[in-house]
Amino acid sequence: MKITLKCALLIGALILSTAAMAQQKAKKRTAYVQTGSPEYGNSTYTFNDNGGVLHEYVETNWKGDRYEMKLVGGKPTMLVVNGEKIAPADYGKYSEVISEIRAQIKRDREQAKRDQAQARVDQEQAKRDQEQAKRDQEQARSEQEEAKRDQQQAGKDQEQAKRDQEQAARDQEQAKRDQEQAKRDQVQAKYDQEQAKEDQRQVDLMMNDLVKDRIVPNMDSVRTIRMNEDELIVNGQKMSETVFSKYKRKYPRFAHGHSENGNFNGLSITR
Q1: Which of 134, 153, 172 is the last residue of a domain?
Q2: How far is CA 224 from CA 217, 227, 237, in A?
Q3: Which residue range is the domain that position 265 belongs to?
Q4: Which residue among 69, 198, 201, 255 is buried most deeply as judged by most CB within 10 Å?
Q5: pLDDT tens by residue, 92-108
Q6: Residue 206, in any domain of the structure
C-alpha cells in the first residue's frame, strides 16, 4: 500500500494529538491531594504509618462546610468545623460525614493510581506510534522519488506532483516548528527541575538556621514551617517580628502570599 508524504504527516499529527490527550488524562485532578499540590489549595491530606497505626490529617470543603481533622487508626483526635473546634464528646455526631470524607479520599487515591497506570500505557503507545510515523516518513520520501520519475513522463502529473511537494514543504516547516517547540519544552522542564532542587536547598538551609538560632533543638524536630509576606510560623509557633524580618531578608523566595480571613497562602511544609 502506498503512503504519500502528506498522508504520513497527517498520521503524525494524529499521533501528536493522541499523545496530548494521554497527557491530559494523566493529569486528571482528584478532590484530595498531597500537601503542596498546585491543583487544590483548599484541600490537604497527609498521612503516615506510625508503629502500624495510621495517622491522618485532613483539611477540606465538604458539602458547603470546612473540615479540619486529625485521625489515629481511623478515629478522630481533633475536629474543627467551619473554624469551630468540636468537643470529643460530640465527635459521634460527625461520624457519618467523617466516613464519607475518608471514603472519598480512598476512592480518589485509587483513581489516581489507575490514572497513572493508564498514563504509562498511553505513553508507551504514543512512543510506538511515533516510531511508526518515522517509518512512514521514510517510506514517503522513497515514494517522492518515484513520483519524480512519473513527473518526467507526463506534464499534467508533473504539475500535480509540484503542488504536492509544496504542501509537503509546508508540512515539513510545521514539523520543524514543532521540534523547536519540543526543545523549548525540554529546556523549561530542566529549569523547573533545577528550581525545585534550589527550593529544597533553601529549605534545608532555613532548617539549619532554625537550629543555629536555637528556635528548634535539631532538624529532626522541625514538624511544620509556614512562611509568607506576613509571618513565619515554626511548629505552630509564630516567630517574633525580629526573627521573621531576618528570615524574610535571607529567604525572599519564600516570602510571598498573605494570611487573609483565616486562610494561609505561601510556603507550607509538613514533615
Answers
A1: 153
A2: 14, 10, 10
A3: 219-270
A4: 69
A5: 999 999 999 999 989 98
A6: no
Which grid coordinates are listed for 175? 514539523
Whether residue 162 lies inside any domain: the answer is no
pLDDT tens per residue, range 147-185: 899 898 989 988 999 999 999 999 999 999 999 999 999
Spatial distance between the Cα atoms of 39 and 102, rounded to a whole number of angstroms: 19
CB 54 within 8 A of CB 47: yes
More confident residue, 52 or 129: 129
Sign of CA dihedral 124, 126, 130, 133: positive
User: Residues 76-87: pLDDT tens digits?
Assistant: 999 999 999 999
> Around Cβ 119, how many Cβ atoms within 10 Å?
17
Name the 3-class secondary structure at 193.
helix
Last residue of a domain, one of 111, 132, 153: 153
Q: How many domains does the chain have?
A: 2
C-alpha distance from residue 64 to each of 14, 29, 67, 180 (Å): 43, 20, 10, 47
Q: Are strands 232-234 and 237-238 parallel, antiparallel or unpaired?
A: antiparallel
Contacts of 130 (CB under 8 A, 6+ apart): 12, 15, 19
